[in-house]
Amino acid sequence: MSWNRKHLLDIESLAPEEIITVLDTARAFKAVGERAIKKVPALRGKTVVNLFVEPSTRTRTSFELSEQRLSADIINFNTEASSLKKGETLKDTARNLEALNIDFIVIRHSASGAPHFLARVLHASVINAGDGAHEHPTQALLDMFTIREKKGRIEGLNVTILGDILYSRVARSDIWALTKLGAKVTLCGPSTLVPRVFEQMGCRVTHDVEEAIRDADIINLLRIQHERQRKSMFPSLGEYSSLFGLNKARLARTKPDALIMHPGPINRGVEIDSEIADCGRSVILEQVTNGLAVRMAVLFLVNGGKGPQEVAP
Amino acid sequence: MPESTLILNAPAIQRALTRIAHEIAERNEASSEVVVVGIQRGGVPLGRRLGALLTGIWGQPVPTGSLDVSMHRDDLDRRAAPNVQPTEIPFDVTGKTVVLVDDVLFSGRTIRAAMDALNDFGRPRRIQLAVLIDRGHRDLPIKADFVGKNVPTAHTERVRVRLTEMGGADEVVIEK
Q1: Residues of chain A with pLDDT under 70
Q2: How far does A128 lie from chain B, in Å, by closest CA?
Q3: B124-142: string of b/e by CB count within 10 Å (b at 16+)?
Q4: Contact criterion met (CB below 8 Å) for B132 and B149
Q5: pLDDT confidence of residue A307
Q6: Which 285-304 residues of chain A touch chain B by CB within 8 A?
Q7: How far apart are CA A263 and CA A241, in angstroms?
Q8: Continuous H helices in A89-208
Q9: pTM for this structure?
């Protein structure tokens, strides 16, 4: 199956075969990262703009290194020092960047749909690095890559996503990817953060953590996003930790081969006990390594993708 | 349905590979210095077969690997991204004679990409090229050291190498 998309905007619109193509391609790029010379010339002469209109360290660093390993030239657009602070619209900023003949824009934005908007008005390839509470497609792809690498498959696995689902773009992208690939997804957390409406995405929703983790092959913990909450959704971090945090006692009641995942950054002592984050069943750092391979694969694939040449005025 | 003409059958492929293996052995007296690297995809099974034949001739194992050149192609922004296959070179190529193996030599661009890709793994003493079919129409100054069969073709024709390892029977056909 070949890839023909010019952009990566979300997981929702991808076919299962397209997701598999990214994962297969990423496997080859992971091998590149293990060589003495970790760089290939696939994007030589191409320019990538990393337009991060919302703070991010790990995703931006991961994209930057992926781009460098593909031999692309890179412009990092830092919001702190940018004209967006002076009132320039996103469209004007992006058009100005495009006037420099760039080839790719990697965008992180607090507004859902910002990457889709750019894809309509620009000739460049657009890659969504997280938009509001909507999607974070490369995170979901690296999660799928990690699960597939560790478990050999995704279909039929019980995957529990535990934590702040409501505000999480990672959760939405993961749910799309997991359900498309045939996993059974359970969502768990406080009822304020895990509303029943998610059942419409094909998931099981429970507010009983013991029940949620008992049969899980994968436990994906999400960070409690203090900064994204407009009002208090649960009484305190301490209470969250005692009711939903993954601690030693709870881990003992999971399947012995259940894997612990977390997109980071982790809040030690809140959603995950410190010693569990560092234990052998945690694949948190492997997710980081795999993120590089997956982002290289995405850039490589969209480079060959042909989208509409017409753009909106 | 494209019109197709058989140019090599299974025994002919086997004979060609056996002859190439003997030519490689004749050209390279220092057998311990030779490694075989097949180019994905058709070159990989051919490389394995040549490796096995050379092992028989020399009486010692010949390291064999596979190389995918997708990331080093010069047309990546002109076509849909190629399916990337595994690259496995579980030995050091530095100082060795690397015999690159491909099924069909055409423009020479794949070989250029392969030589670039190989450089990322070390600095071979020399690189030699073995192909089952040379169909002409080179775009680059590249020439094979060992050729199974020279086949004059029209630019628009397609040469298909089918191998049992990739499903199907051993045969080479030209499609018009």
Answers
A1: 1, 80-83, 85, 226-231, 307-311, 313
A2: 19
A3: beebbbbbbbbbeeeeeee
A4: yes
A5: 66
A6: 300-301, 303-304
A7: 18
A8: 90-98, 114-121, 137-151, 169-180
A9: 0.92
